[in-house]
Amino acid sequence: MNMKQVQTSEVAFEGQREGEKLLFVFRRHIIAMRKGFYGLLIPFALTSIPPLIWSANLELFILPLVGLGIGLIIFFYHFIMWYFTVYIVSNERIRQVTQRGLFGKDVVELRLSKIQNISYNVPGFTGEIFKFGTIVIQTFVGDLVIHNVEHPGKIYNKLQDAVNHAIEVVPQGEHEETDT
Fold first, then answer.
1. What is the distance between the alpha carbons of residues 47 and 169, in angstroms, rounded to a whole number?
2. How do strand 93-100 and strand 104-111 relate by DSSP bridges?
3. Whether 136 contacts 118, CB under 8 Å
4. Considering just the CA atoms, what is the radius of gyration of the chain in Å?
5. CB contact at 8 A, 85 and 99
6. What is the rounded CA–CA span in Å between residue 96 and residue 98?
7. Where would you find the membrane-spanning parts of this chain (predicted)?
8. H or E stretch at 71
């Protein structure tokens, strides 16, 4: 029973394989959630206008509260999408878990040994100020483009290290299997 508890506690993420080690987890920058912030502010601002114009009508002062409620629902939806979309990097693969709606989820995996090239860019002044950018991971099959990554330079360096380590380990593992 203790052995089972130890094995379960070592699992760092859903779908982790035996012997696989979690290197790091990252998500998109909070700026990726700007639609949620707009969704919070715009309904509140629009419903605040009538009470300002017709201030004698006290029933209109309920409208900003309704606008705030609608805005909070929109914000909550975008927050869930942002928070539950993560990128998990292990010693074997990159696992992209994307939240689709409140109940949907997409999972994409790339083996580190299959990655050909990794690049990143920072989109000008706002990207430099808020420290976000885009990372492009190229494989034989296609590209995985991750927009609005927080600190893309740091994530890029960590990904490069993980890919280089995976490429060094794979040929040794293949030689060990053929020798035995």
1. 60
2. antiparallel
3. yes
4. 23
5. yes
6. 6
7. 36-54, 60-90
8. helix 63-83
Question: Quick one: tokens of 120?
Answer: 């990143």
Chain CA centroid to CA 90, Å: 15
Amino acid identity of residue 126, one-letter, is: T
Per residue in 67-107, pLDDT (tens digit) is: 999 999 999 999 999 999 999 999 989 999 999 988 889 99
Tens digits of residue pLDDT in 104-152: 899 988 999 889 999 999 999 989 999 999 999 998 888 889 999 999 9
Coil, strand, or helix at residue 16?
A: coil
Distance in angstroms (rounded) separating the CA atoms of residues 151 and 2: 40
Report the candidate in 152, 21, 169 with the shortest Cα–Cα distance to residue 93.
21
Residues facing 134 on adjacent strands: 121
List the beta bridge partners of residue 88.
Answer: 25, 95
How is the chain split into domains, by residue range? 22-28+91-169, 35-79
Write the CA distances from 101 to 18, 39, 81, 148, integer angstroms. 31, 16, 7, 19
Closest to 152 (Cα-Cα) out of 127, 125, 116, 115? 127
